[in-house]
Amino acid sequence: MSRRLCLIPGDGIGLEVVPAAVEVLEKLLPAVQVLEADAGWECFRRQGSAVPEATLELLTECGAGLFGAVSSPSGVVPGYRSAILTLRQRLGLSLNLRPVRSWPQVSPRADVDLLILRENSEGLYSGREHWEAEGVAIAERVISRAACQRLAEQAAQLAGERSARRITLVHKANVLPLTCGLFRDTCSQVLTAAGWGEQLDERLVDIAALQLVQQPEAFDLIVTTNLFGDILSDLACHWGGGMGLAPSLNLGAGIALAEPVHGSAPDIAGSGRANPLAAILSLGLLLRYHWQLPELAARLEAAVYSFLAEEGQVDFATQTTRRVTQGILQRL
Ligand code: NAI
Ligand code: MG
After folding, report:
1. N or C: which end of the chain has fewer CB within 10 A?
2. CA angle, corner 235, sides to 232 and 241, nearest 5?
3. Which ligand 1 atom is nearest residue 267's CA?
4. Angle, nearest 10°, between helix axes 320-331 and 277-285?
């Protein structure tokens, strides 16, 4: 069966890691058909839109994509909204999978293997921000039962696939009893009904952050809301060797978008130092969870493992992107 992949390199190091990851995918899956689309800050400056309709159409048609990274200004720019948030909302990519595991040589410890499942379409990133009065800005945090149900159903499936020993719901229901309460209660009901009551656990987000630092090995599947998942996944990726190795997959109904956790890294863009493994491993997630090609995903991960075991400590200086890509290609 022929697979189509829509590439959205974006800005900064997205333009460097996406071609590297595609080279690896083409070696694994020579029949893959690759098409390219535009999005991001430079796209906004050229076309007046950070996500042109043509990009949404191509991605929908392909049913699968790889997103590099985009730059976003930190102030208000009329008409601009982060491209990745727009893609997630417009395409119904309402779940985000962010695995973190120990890798040889590059991980500070050897016993971490956890998966953060993050709600991806609402929460504090609902996009509803306004001025209430001069000097008072409001952001609305949206939590819906339907989105929590979808999240918990996906959590139950993932828990089965990884034989989860523990499922931790992360929230802040003590100070946000309506929104976080709805999240906790809905997820808890769905997971208990699916037979995961014994493994179910919950943590307030602040203490969860401390425990992810103190005993990351105690976590297995973490289920949480949009903002909490964003922050905790950056924290947790320290255990997997840092930002350059942190993959993610945005999932919707019949559509998925692979996305390294990192941003456009303007501090190293153009220097050849971007690590392509986050993007490469994101394609591994696409192979495993969307295209249902677990053998290819396992081959890819084995190549990454062997590369890091043998060359993980080498300082590639200015040639990281090229040297890492070659190292993976050689091992496939
Ligand atoms: P960042 O992830 O771009 O960079 C953080 C640090 O990690 C930098 O020192 C960078 O050099 C390093 N780093 C990131 N990816 C790396 C890689 N593959 N290899 C080696 N080092 C890597 O986050 P930052 O600096 O907070 O944001 C920069 C821009 O990216 C901003 O405009 C921000 O809005 C955007 N951003 C976009 C995201 C996306 O498109 N999904 C996600 C996060 C930030
Ligand atoms: Mg983030």
Report:
1. N
2. 135
3. 11
4. 40
Closest CA to 254 of 291, 226, 298: 291
CA 193 → CA 61, 149, 170, 326, distances in Å? 35, 12, 19, 47
Cβ neighbours of residue 8 closer than 8 Å, sequence gap 6 or more: 14, 18, 36, 37, 38, 39, 40, 55, 59, 65, 66, 67, 68, 83, 87
Is the pTM for the entire model greater than 0.90?
A: yes
Find the helix or strand (DSSP H, E) in which 38 lies.
none
Please identify which residue in the block is written with the tokens 């993050």: 118
Helical pair 294-311 and 320-331, crossing angle rounded to 10 deg: 120
Catalytic residue chosen out of the listed positions 113, 185, 201, 234: 234
Rounded Cα–Cα distance for residues 79 and 283 (Å): 31
Residues facing 331 on adjacent strands: none
Ligand nearest to the backbone CA of 264: 1
What structural domains and CATH numbers belong to the chain? 1-98+244-332 (3.40.718.10), 108-240 (3.40.718.10)
C-alpha of residue 186 to centroid of ligand 1, in Å: 33
